[in-house]
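Running this now, will post back.
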Amino acid sequence: MLIVASCSLSEAVEVNDKLVTVDEEGNKSDRVLLNVRISESDTDVPEMLKNISKGTVKFFTVDSDITVDTDLPVFRSYTLEDALENGMKTKYIPLVNVGDDFPNANVNMRTLYELSLNHPGVRFIGGRLLALNGISIGRFDEGKSKMSVNYSDVYDNFLEVKLSEIGNLKEIVKKSRKKLEDAEDKPKKKKASKEHKPGKASKRVAAFSNLFSDVEEVEF
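Update: finished.
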């Protein structure tokens, strides 16, 4: 299992070797890569990037369009409020954190669908999300076919933790592993029935239809 640990640029520079978790028997267990968060306030970014050990980073996350010279994915983070009020214009992958209270009385999946129409390539994390055509959930598409259509806490086929929690990583991994297992779309035991039960694709269509029942036609 892959674990992605979020850290600052200065913390990433201090990681001088590949990280792994260790199980109860002392054996190396899970590989750990970094999500390096780069802030607009960071200085000497190009030089610091050169000092990060190769093979330790999975992707970068920035809060502005600061230049990050890398072949790895770079995500430009937005809050949902900021994305709605100011839009998103970035050379990186736009990533909107919708907030823990999503959906609520003010914003829902329809809001994200409309944002996706206006900002192609935008992706969403946070809150409780439903997999619908036209809405990209999580940082990557890979692994989604094996995950449930309902997302909460886990939005990709890896676990995200904070590097500062690395000392207590065993317990975090134990709890997070269960979240990842719960996020998987496990096949249910077949029961004898004459009725046709909708599959995963049908569930998405039904959910989409309920959300956008007042829209005459939507093509994908």
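The radius of gyration is 19 Å. More later if anyone needs it.
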